[in-house]
Amino acid sequence: MTPFPDILRILPEVVLTLTGVAIMLLDAAIPPAWPRRSLGWVAAIGTTLALWTSLWQLSLPQGTGFFQTVETSAFTVFFHVLICGIVLVALLLSLDTLPATTHHQGEYYALVVFGAVGMCLMTSAIELLLVFVALEISSISTYILAGYRKQTVKGPEAAIKYFLLGSFATAFLLYGIALAFGATGTTQIYELARRLPTAQNPTFVIASLALMLVGILFKVSAAPFHVWTPDVYEGAPTPVVALLSTAPKAAAFALLLRVIYEIFPSLHSLWAPLLWIVAALSMTVGNLAALRQKNVKRMLAYSSIAHAGYLLAAFAGIGSIGITAASFYTAAYAAMNAGIFAVITLVAGYDEQLNDIDDFRGLLHRSPLLGILLVFFLISLIGIPFTGGFFGKFYSFTAAVDGGAIVLAIIGLLNSGLAAAYYLRFALATAQQPVSGKPIAAPKPALGAAVIAAIFLAAAATLILGIAPGATLGAAQSASHTLQTPTVETNLPTVPVQSPQ
Amino acid sequence: MTAIDHSILALILLVPLAGALLVAFAPDRWKLPNWIALLTTLATFVLTLHLPAHFVAGQPGFQFEVNIPWIESPAISYHVGIDGLSLWLVVLAGLLAPIGVVASWNAIQTRRKIFFSLFLIQQTAMLGVFVALDLILYYAFWELSLVPMAILIAMFGRKEGYRAALRFFLFTFIPSAPLLVAILWLYARTGTFNFADLQFQIASGVLPAGALYWVALAFLFAFAVKVPVFPLHGWLADTYSEAPVALAMVVAGKLGLYSMLRFHVGLFPTQARQIAPILIALAVIGVLYGACLALVQRDFWRLIAFAALSHLSLIVLAIYGITFTGWSGAVYQILSHGVVDGAIFLLLGALELRYATTTISSFGGLAVKLPRAATYFVITTLAMIGLPLLSGFVGEFLILSTTFTQVSRGWAIAAAVGVILGAAYMLWLVQRLFYGPESEVAAKPATDLRFGEWAILTPLIVLMFIMGVAPSLWLNTIQTSVHPPLIREQMKYMEVLQTPAQSEVQR
Question: How much is the pTM?
Answer without folding.
Answer: 0.86
